[in-house]
Fold this sequence. Notes:
The chain has 299 residues and is mainly alpha-helical.
Amino acid sequence: MDDSFYEAAVHSATSAGWFDGIAVRDSLVRQKPHGMPLQEFVVRHSIGTDFAMNFARTAYCARQPLTREALGRAIAYLNAVNESARARGYIWDAYTNNCSHVVHNAVAAAGVWDPKETRSPGPTSVVRDVMSVAKAIALGRMSDFSFPANTFVRLYEAGNERPLEDAVAASRNHDVARTMSDGWLSTGPGALIATYPMHDGDRNRLFAAGRDPFLFSVPMLWDKEEKFRRLTRTPPSAVTDLYANLTHFRDRYLKALATQPANNGDTFGERFRERLAQELQRTQSLIAEYRVLDGANRG
């Protein structure tokens, strides 16, 4: 990736008409250099997205397995966002309505967590987002601010840290209770993370590596920054290696079932124990399948 490659990409996108039919606001058009065709200007303004992955930034990825029904709800939400943008234009703001809000609310549509409220640009909206932070801390929920690094950490937590060993704690966690009502649990096997670093200077002559992405964190109370560093520097194998992940959750299910009474008169507890038993059986089947496939690959 160098200047000549970048210019060739701009020329290719402009010539092919990839952005034909996209209208931009007058305020943006006024930024166009004199003599530059509008189509080329639109391409140059937008093409950075094509280079963002691994050239202009490091990608921090978290996987959240979903049921088919939950995935369908996430897809329906994203389709609705696209339809709204097509009909009324896309409204973006770095603080109150950014790309991370879209990802977060798609996952919320799947039932993993609560949605965030998006707001129009402006200082009043930012103030309302700031006020949502205090409410989130007081209630143990999420604020309406949304940043990609926070979403990465939150998705890791949803896939790995919600209570399995304690039915009482699970019943008091409204996210667990919601997924239980839908017949699944977000914390379970397959919730892996991965970091894909920027290409080094041999392949990347346009972008230089910077610092970690911005992450909202409250030390001693809500320390997401420390967790982000741990996950991106020295992550445990249980969240980076599939076999280690499967055996980790098998052991968690066995421990949970061994410590929770089979029948304590608690309806949620009974349903939760039954769900854990089903997840244990499914995980053991996945481990057996993994061993067969791994043996075939080694052979």
